[in-house]
Write a structure and sequence with these properties.
The protein is of the alpha+beta class. The protein contains five helices and two strands.
Length: 131
């Protein structure tokens, strides 16, 4: 199964006779090339996590941290921030825990300081990806 990852913004939602139609805006630099090659009508399994500050709390932060540590772009971003070489999920996980000063991601549910640092880091990462 191929996984396509990109950042998107909900711009509209409507209902028709067959269901709901969700419209997303993807920045031109974020559009995955393989998505452009797929035919209209292609089916996808979709997992979406809201990344704006208002939506990210408690359990969502634990999920966000896990997703970030599986993202190769995040490897490069975090490596640049910490001036270390990160080339896999485990190294990213270790570096992120060190950066947030936590032992486990579950601490993000109760550690407000670490949660704030992760929210800011994610915001900086999203900005870095757009540039």
């Amino acid at each position: 199964m191929d996984v396509i990852r990109f950042d998107a913004v909900k711009v509209a939602m409507k209902q028709d006779a067959t269901g709901y139609v969700l419209t997303l805006r993807i920045h031109p630099d974020e559009v995955p090339e393989e998505l452009l090659r797929h035919f209209v009508g292609a089916h996808y399994d979709v997992a979406m996590i809201r990344t704006d500050v208002q939506a990210i709390t408690g359990p969502n932060l634990v999920q966000l941290a896990g997703m970030l540590c599986r993202n190769q772009d995040f490897f490069h971003f975090l490596g640049n921030e910490m001036i270390v070489d990160i080339s896999n999920e485990q190294q990213a996980t270790d570096a992120l825990r060190e950066y947030l000063q936590i032992q486990t991601r579950k601490e993000l549910q109760t550690n407000k300081e670490a949660a704030s640092k992760l929210i800011k880091l994610n915001k900086d990462f999203q900005s870095w990806k757009r540039n």
